């Protein structure tokens, strides 16, 4: 059974959103209402004449390789940055299913020919939990998507494929988890550890038999909670996975970045008192560290806000961007100079009419670009701004006109030689994937 855009998030995610809206409205914080109800209509990308931040030139539209109906792009780069790939979902012609496709960014600042990775009519299609393809300099490329389990609308598995020839052909599909429970698994981040791909995901195996509240009333207990797990992927199947955190927020994205000696994962934690702040953990020599809080926002909310963090790294500098709303909607940024072991006090990126859906790119010399979705009278804008550890290094730039509806997904950003690449979905009845390039000065 294919889950389409109207019911993409599953009962637990809908429960999270509805409960979260009641909480935030009672606190006079309305950001979740914005992205749960959304805005209608499509708008073209922003004009190239928009003012630019000091490091960013004006955006120029780039023809996307995706067909009409495509949605939810994902941008990923290899460790060296030499290979940048965009993946996306596209409806199967004449069928009710979807296919996962990918294309490589070329030196002439255009996209290569798209390649099919996988396809199916039993996929779980989710506006916030979308597939990905991640390239590698050495070793296999990796891809993932979500596949429905028989007999359970809100029971689905993470499925992965690997490619040993640079994304041209793909091996057999398999799941990185072997629990077999009819529960939710998703919000995957794929990364490279040495010459092997590594997967991190939210794992609902402990929620079996707990309904779809994921232990919302299990205060102080990890029984029935969503967990965070990880596993190395191999061409012949996954190595046994490990638990990274026994109690996490149910439906916020995870993200990973590599430092000199570790893989860092960031995610939204869930404390016994329903505080849901951003945490980080490090994988060193096959062992995960105890998670640490990136910052104690003290955002207490009785449901998942469906708004995960983003992380980037350059050498031992780790940079995390995230959405929070302990009092009002905010975008924050924190730098770590010791590989993600500790983090400095956060920088306030924006507040007020912000939806979140952040991304971050690390540049050399401690510089970073943060992107997020901001609201305005016409709907929303994809906005980007340069920062250093000392604070903002220039004004924000409007990259593209967007909307806050779920169908618009999560805008993406990646560094490519000479500048930044952006990708986003223009929602509505006929979704389209758009891409744009902004030079760095």
Features:
Methylamine Dehydrogenase, Chain H; 5% helix; single chain; 441 residues; 5-stranded antiparallel sheet; globular; mainly beta
Q: Report strand %.
A: 35-45%
Write down how many β-strands occur, each being a DSSP E stretch of 2 or more residues. Answer: 30
Query: Treating each run of at least 4 consecutive H or I residues as one helix, how many helices?
Result: 2
- Poorly predicted ranges: 1-51, 212-221
CATH architecture verdict: 7 Propeller
Q: Please give the domain count.
A: 1
| Global Rg | 20 Å
Shape: globular
Q: Report mean pLDDT, rounded to a whole number.
A: 86
Q: SS-based structural class?
A: mainly beta
CATH topology: Methylamine Dehydrogenase, Chain H
CATH homologous superfamily annotation: YVTN repeat-like/Quinoprotein amine dehydrogenase
Q: Describe the largest sheet.
A: 5 strands, antiparallel
Which class in CATH terms? Answer: Mainly Beta
How far is it from the N-terminal to the C-terminal residue, by CA?
49 Å
Report the helical percentage: under 10%
Report on this structure.
This protein is mainly beta and 441 residues long. 5% of the residues lie in helices and 43% in strands. It has 2 helices and 30 strands. The chain has helices spanning 10-26, 31-37, and strands at 60-62, 71-77, 84-91, 98-104, 115-120, 132-134, 141-149, 152-163, 185-193, 196-203, 227-234, 237-238, 242-245, 255-258, 263-268, 278-284, 287-288, 292-293, 310-314, 317-324, 330-336, 347-351, 354-362, 368-376, 379-388, 391-392, 397-402, 412-416, 419-426, 432-439. A hairpin with a 2-residue loop joins strand 16 (278-284) and strand 17. The chain is globular and about 50 Å long.
